[in-house]
Amino acid sequence: MSAPEPGPERDKSTSEILGQALGGAARRAGLDPAESSSTHKVVWSAMGGWRGILESVLPSIAFVVIFTIRPEPLILSLGISVGLAAVFTIIRLAQKSPPSAALGGLVAAGAAAALALWTGRGADNFVPGLITNAVYGSVILVSALIGWSLIGLAVGFLMGEGTTWRNDRRKRRAYFWLGIAWAALFFARLAVQLPLYLAGDVTALGTLKLIMGLPLFAPLIAVTWLVVRALHPREPASEDAPEA
């Protein structure tokens, strides 16, 4: 018996799996268009509140400041940076709160520090971030260009419409431009930070990484949320519906 040929059902299964994964991640981050939330609340939730902000920026700030003041020994600045990430993780575990964000930061900080110690170059502490920007930017850009925007897949799953948004020209165009905007953010980071990495300017590189992090992430989250909510307006509650 010959093997079944790949067809629409296989493509649909792949898109559903990807949409569920992206949608689940968006929901955990507080980005669910089906819920009634203010833009401010959504952006704040996506950043993880004060704890998420501190977990994101403090290890990097510590590394940059200490490395600038005392570049040698390198293990000093790297150790304090990783140590802060470990403290955040321990606190989350002790409070039995979801540790995924802190664990992700700890793993990333540990991998970056290990690379920097192995090469002996402080600038290599930023290599994982450069790679992440390149990969995320490329994947989001390609998905938008081929008409399968990752944003559209995530929203389609969250709103229970699957991939039918691709039949709506307005939604398809909106998700295309949102994908372009997100890809532009990642590539802008790469374009600014890569020359500094090649020049070995750790202080400038670390500073610009922070400036191009949450300060640019938050407005783009807000824009994405507003566009998605405009495309999927909430239906009036049944008790508010006019009587026949």
From TrEMBL:
Protein name per Swiss-Prot or TrEMBL: DUF3159 domain-containing protein
Highest taxon above the source species: Bacteria
